[in-house]
Specification:
The chain has four helices and no strands. The protein is an all-alpha fold. The mean pLDDT is about 95. The radius of gyration is 11 Å and the shape is globular. About 70% of the residues lie in helices and about 0% in strands.
């Protein structure tokens, strides 16, 4: 997986979440991130995206964007 591709999808998901209120599945996506961010098949992507962006995934919106991006790109 090209980390630039993951970042592009993450940004797309984040922008959608930022411009829309009450997105269906957002709370579940945050819960998925919280429960799965340290799984061996997910953690390398979390680390790589954080390094690529130079910023932690620290908000619920960012967590949901990551989870949605993973869903689209079949990660985890």
């Amino acid at each position: 997986m090209d980390i630039a591709e993951l970042n592009k999808q993450f940004e797309k998901e984040y922008e959608f979440l930022y411009t829309h209120d009450n997105v269906a599945g957002e709370d579940e996506a945050v819960a998925w991130f919280d429960a799965n961010q340290n799984r061996p098949d997910v953690k390398p992507y979390v680390i790589a995206l954080v390094k690529y962006r130079g910023d932690l995934i620290s908000s619920d919106r960012e967590a949901a964007a990551f989870a949605f991006a993973c869903e689209v790109l079949n990660i985890g």
